[in-house]
UniProtKB/TrEMBL annotation:
One of its GO terms (biological process) is regulation of cell shape. One of its GO terms (molecular function) is serine-type D-Ala-D-Ala carboxypeptidase activity. This is Glycosyl transferase. Keywords: Carboxypeptidase, Cell shape, Cell wall biogenesis/degradation, Glycosyltransferase, Hydrolase, Multifunctional enzyme, Peptidoglycan synthesis, Protease, Transferase. SUPFAM superfamilies: beta-lactamase/transpeptidase-like (SSF56601), Lysozyme-like (SSF53955). It comes from the Bacteria. It catalyses: [GlcNAc-(1->4)-Mur2Ac(oyl-L-Ala-gamma-D-Glu-L-Lys-D-Ala-D-Ala)](n)-di-trans,octa-cis-undecaprenyl diphosphate + beta-D-GlcNAc-(1->4)-Mur2Ac(oyl-L-Ala-gamma-D-Glu-L-Lys-D-Ala-D-Ala)-di-trans,octa-cis-undecaprenyl diphosphate = [GlcNAc-(1->4)-Mur2Ac(oyl-L-Ala-gamma-D-Glu-L-Lys-D-Ala-D-Ala)](n+1)-di-trans,octa-cis-undecaprenyl diphosphate + di-trans,octa-cis-undecaprenyl diphosphate + H(+); Preferential cleavage: (Ac)2-L-Lys-D-Ala-|-D-Ala. Also transpeptidation of peptidyl-alanyl moieties that are N-acyl substituents of D-alanine. GO terms for cellular component: outer membrane-bounded periplasmic space. Pfam families: Transgly, Transpeptidase. Residues 77-263 form the Glycosyl transferase family domain.
Length: 715
């Protein structure tokens, strides 16, 4: 027995309800005449109620730019990394292949250029197909665009759960969509709507908009899409998951060929083009987006530092969540100070310093340009993800303060003990009082008891070194690294040879011990784990670098010496542009001339030059061949070691050791990169790392002579 045929119109079925819905739209008088079959009738009361409902719906649609990828760029415009919620890059219609435009219109809405936002013929066609048992959508491209705009606004606001999918739309949702579509057509041209649609529609979970889709599937710009490529993408919008060519190639090709058929039917291509296109094999060249600083093409830890600068800056949003949202969805272009000419050698050098490094010793370099504060390189030997190289995996940034990096609840490592690289701070205080570098101090003195008469005007000096007072809280008598340096010597020799007792004798000879604190403040010294908290140099042990300071802070402090006393706040971001290319932010140079007296900085540099040629830096075999100055540093456990050095144009902090814990293990009897070290000193590993890197870097920046110091500060 033949099955009984369903009546064309039956108001008791879902189809009848759809017909009734369109009848309501007709009564509203906003859809063109002839939209509905005259066979459908409504009562006057129902019609009047529908008119009131329809008229109450909003007709204004604010088309805001959809979520876009944010790019972080180096100083030369090269890409560092990208971040996004949805991988999307907006482009104008002129940069979309005509094949793509034709394909999407042919398959989704071939009457796009004839209707006014809602297509009555399309609706009747869909009804007829649905009545035959099949399914066909009736939404125009304009209606689809409206839906995507509404949904994108919800996503941007963090309301993804409120998104209404096509299959979930009720009569009210459809009426609203139609009214907004009609209004949108009066506000925008067809090409503007098509451009917006192709930029917003999802083609894949990793590709939103046609440019991202073209790059993802074909590694091509959207302007270069061929007929079969464009047809494949146009077919995806109907079901990105169902027609995914990477998972279901047969479905994807069948859908692609259906689009190509539609392009022929509607006159966008000829028969020869059609036949060639449907015969073409499915050829993909996948280019999955890798977003986040962990996938940065260069300087991943610098990338992370830059994002934290944005996320911690109220200029980009009232709350941190607002700032994160702006970065991940706002399509920003963040232009930075990073110089790839230096970053490449820096990364190569830290990787070479520690080798495969099963013991997870850390190596890092960070460089600041004196007189500007620009951070031009930042590298370390670890990796952010497994499989990225031989380095151990950590998200901690060795070079910056805890609040400026990822890794723990506070942020990052938060600095390491700088050891003797802190001694130039006491030297600066000495020089600021007008005392010469060649003045003799008593480096034989090792006892500074609890009641020692320090001359201080701002605070009480704490700490003591006295074997006889250990039970009262004092440390043992002051020690030098080697036994033969307990004798009267010049302040210059004390710094050059890194003699602890000479630094204490200099501090004892000051008119005001508080000048050490003032010098540290002028150099921008602060606690790496204390959110900018100043170092407390009233504690004697801190004169020798007993607290944690970030390498960036050390590099920038020494940059103040190189710049004849001008201190500049470190900056990493030169400009931030929004998705429309309008400048919305950036870090301006903030420099203070005479933070140190120029003569003080020049005389300090004169002494630190001797470190390289006569002192502890003489153990570094590599020489720059240009005027340079530096100071070595090692903590008491030999597991955090440094060289901080500079030319006129570059100041670099080089670190080697355990960046996580100053006391967990000793830097003694260790083998690093195949070489055995009875003890590790700043000049042994951090020193060559500094010198080899700087040899490659100095030529790009000023490397002339330092300015001569005032003769009265030499003596």
């Amino acid at each position: 027995m033949a099955p009984r045929r369903k009546p064309l119109i039956d108001t008791t079925t879902a189809l009848g309800k759809v017909l009734a819905f369109f009848s309501i739209s007709a009564v509203c008088g906003v859809l063109v005449a002839g939209l509905m079959s005259p066979a459908v009738a409504l009562t006057s009361a129902a019609a009047n109620g529908s008119v009131q409902f329809f008229n109450s719906l909003p007709s204004d649609l604010t088309v805001t730019p959809p979520s876009q990828s944010t790019r972080i760029l180096a100083a030369d415009g090269s890409t560092i990394g990208t971040v996004f919620t949805e991988n999307r890059t907006d482009i104008p219609l002129s940069q979309m292949s005509m094949n793509m435009r034709n394909a999407i219109v042919a398959i989704e809405d071939y009457r796009f250029y004839q209707h006014g936002g809602v297509d009555p013929m399309g609706i009747l066609r869909a009804l007829t197909v649905d009545a035959g048992g099949a399914r066909q959508g009736a939404s125009t491209l304009t209606q689809q665009y409206v839906t995507n705009v509404l949904n994108e606004d919800l996503v941007t606001q963090g309301k993804s759960a409120d998104v209404v999918l096509n299959g979930q739309k009720g009569v009210g949702d459809k009426l609203r969509e139609m009214k907004l579509s009609i209004a949108l057509e009066k506000q925008y041209s067809k090409d503007q709507i098509l451009q917006g649609y192709l930029n917003i529609v999802p083609f894949n979970g990793n590709a939103y908009g046609v440019e991202a889709a073209s790059q993802y599937f074909f590694s091509e710009d959207a302007k270069d899409l061929t007929i079969p490529q464009a047809a494949l993408l146009a077919g995806l919008v109907n079901g990105p998951g169902y027609y995914d060519p990477t998972a279901y190639p047969d479905r994807a090709v069948a859908r692609r060929n259906l689009v190509i058929d539609a392009m022929l039917t509607h006159g966008y291509i000829d028969k020869a083009q059609h036949d060639a296109a449907v015969k073409s094999p499915l050829t993909l060249k996948l280019n999955p987006p890798k977003q986040g600083c962990q996938y940065a093409t260069q300087a991943p830890y610098f990338c992370d530092y830059v994002l934290h600068q944005i996320e911690n800056d109220p200029a980009y949003g009232a709350t941190q969540q607002d700032r994160v949202q702006r970065v991940t969805s706002g399509g920003l272009t963040i232009k930075t100070t990073l110089d790839p000419r230096l970053q490449g050698p820096a990364q190569q050098q830290v990787d070479a310093t520690a080798g495969a490094n099963p013991d997870k010793w850390g190596a890092s370099l960070v460089t600041v340009q004196p007189g500007t504060g620009k951070i031009v390189a930042m590298a370390q030997n670890s990796r952010m993800l497994d499989g990225q190289g031989s380095g151990f995996v950590t998200t901690y940034n060795f070079n910056v303060d805890s609040s400026d990096a990822s890794g723990n609840p506070l942020g990052g490592v938060g600095g390491m003990q700088p050891g003797s690289t802190m001694k130039p701070v006491t030297l600066a205080a000495w020089l600021d009082e007008g005392k010469p570098t060649n003045q003799i101090v008593d480096a034989a003195q090792r006892v500074y008891p609890l009641n020692y008469p320090w001359r201080d005007t701002c605070t009480k000096v704490t700490g003591a070194y006295d074997d006889a007072e250990v039970s009262l809280g004092a440390a043992n008598d002051l020690q030098n690294d080697e036994p033969n340096w307990y004798y009267p010597m010049s302040v210059r020799e004390g710094i050059t040879q890194s003699i602890n007792t000479a630094t204490f004798a200099s501090a004892a000879g000051l008119n005001d011990f508080c000048d050490i604190q003032r010098a540290a403040d002028a150099l921008g010294m602060h606690n790496g784990a204390g959110n900018g908290q100043k170092l407390d140099l009233s504690t004697l042990g801190n004169l020798l670098g007993g607290m944690n300071v970030a390498p960036l802070t050390m590099a920038n402090a020494f940059a103040t010496f190189a710049a004849d006393g001008t201190y500049c706040t470190p900056i990493s971001i030169t400009e931030v542009d929004d998705a429309q290319g309008k400048k919305i932010g950036g870090q301006n140079q903030s420099c203070q001339a005479n933070a140190l007296k120029p003569g003080v900085a020049q005389a300090a540099t004169n002494v630190l030059q001797d470190v390289i040629t006569k002192g502890s830096g003489l153990l570094i075999p590599q020489k720059l061949g240009v005027p340079d100055a530096a100071k070595t540093g090692t903590n008491q456990y030999n597991n955090q070691t440094w060289v901080v050095g500079y030319t006129r144009g570059l100041s670099t902090a080089s670190f080697f050791g355990d960046p996580f814990n100053a006391t967990a293990r000793l830097g003694r009897d260790v083998t690093v990169n195949g070489q055995y070290y009875p003890v590790v000193d700043g000049a042994y590993i951090a020193g060559p790392q500094w010198a080899k890197y700087m040899q490659q870097a100095v030529g790009y920046y000023d490397h002339g002579d330092f300015d001569p110091p005032p003769p009265n500060l030499i003596g």
